Amino acid sequence: MFQLFIKPIDLTSQVPNFIQDSANFDGINYLHIAKYGYGLYQQAFFPLFPLLIKLVSFVTNNNYFIAGLIISNLSFLIGIVVFKKYLGSISKNPSKITWILLFLLAFPTSFFFGAVYTESLFFLLFVSALYFTQEKRYWLVIACCILASMTRLMGVFLLIPVLFTVINQKKHIHFTDWKIILAILSPGLGLLTYMLYLTYTVGNPLAFYSTQSNFNAGRTTGSLITLPQVYFRYLNIFISAQHNLVYFVAVLEFLIFNLVFAVLLYNLWILWKRKDVLNRISLIGLNLFSLINILLPTLTGTFSSVPRYALLSLSFFIQLAEINNKLVKSVILILFTILLIILLGCFTQGYFVS
């Protein structure tokens, strides 16, 4: 994957190489933005994470790498606690909550939660928005949604689970309650803020999208690509490409996308069919967000990075925990763990795996 940086980022000689490798690929760009500001084409990376790295670097003796690690790992630890509270608030029993968390932790790309990437920060803001909506603490919902959409584009789509949860709580939405309306609309405010910044700095409010094609990840930004076209591209890869690591990654992207996509569709079908599911409307909203989360990247013509993006399709993990056969769940958990070890080994050796 193409990496763009003007000056090298000073890490620290006292940090082992395998830990430094947690800032591979996108991580280098976030560190560069935190230290030097936005460079050429780096508008694809949303501003909250590098801004936080910059702020935390003041207490890490200007070590941006350590600051990034602190933010990611602390965000994930807090996020797990909040996610567990959220699952309890939607009436999941302790046994299923344990399985949901195990599937999430063992997922083949879960190591990104500990890397200098936005996965952990977005996870924390995402599950916090879900939990605070359940608790009707709308000011906190507004804050989390705004910050989430300043972290990743997917933050905008928090509008869907927030709206569905409000509907689940009220038979009729009271549009005179401006806090609720603001909470529903707040996911767009963070993105709007970033777009205004891009308009002022580079004259293009959509630079976060148009610059994607400059990172050699096989993305097309000139036009939207349909899902059948993406399938056709990957079938061509499987037929014509050499059987090397790139081929293995393409197979992995294809398999994980289809696994997550199929489970999410099944989950949506179950929720649509069964009227007796507790918090059914809220779960439908979460499912739609999860589907958009893995489908949106395919509009650029590739499944690249979908195994990493799938971490935030939380309905996938919730549905896996609904499997009644413990042996089947254990086998899935073992397979996830084996793939996790393999991918982590590749990533720390400097190979792009998602």
Your description of this structure?
By secondary structure, the chain is mostly helical. The protein has one domain. It is about 65% helix and about 0% strand. It has helices spanning about 15-20, 25-35, 50-55, 65-90, 95-105, 120-135, 140-150, 160-170, 180-185, 185-200, 205-210, 225-240, 245-275, 280-295, 305-310, 315-320, 325-350. Helix 2 packs across helix 3 (about 50-55) and helix 12 runs antiparallel to helix 13 (about 245-275). The N and C termini lie close together (about 10 Å). The model is unreliable at about 1-10 (pLDDT under 50).
Summarize the structure.
The chain is mostly helical and 354 residues long. Helix content is 63%, strand content 0%.
Q: Which features would summarize this protein structure in a list?
A:
disordered N terminus; globular; 17 helices; mainly alpha; 354 residues
Q: Radius of gyration, rounded?
A: 20 Å
Strand content: under 5%
> What characteristic shape results from the CA principal axes?
globular
Q: Specify the structural class.
A: mainly alpha
Low-confidence stretches: 1-8
Number of individual domains: 1
Order of helices and strands: HHHHHHHHHHHHHHHHH
Largest sheet: none
Helicity level: 55-70%
Overall pLDDT, averaged?
89
Q: Helical segment tally?
A: 17
Give the N-terminus to C-terminus distance in angstroms.
10 Å
Q: What is the tally of beta strands?
A: 0
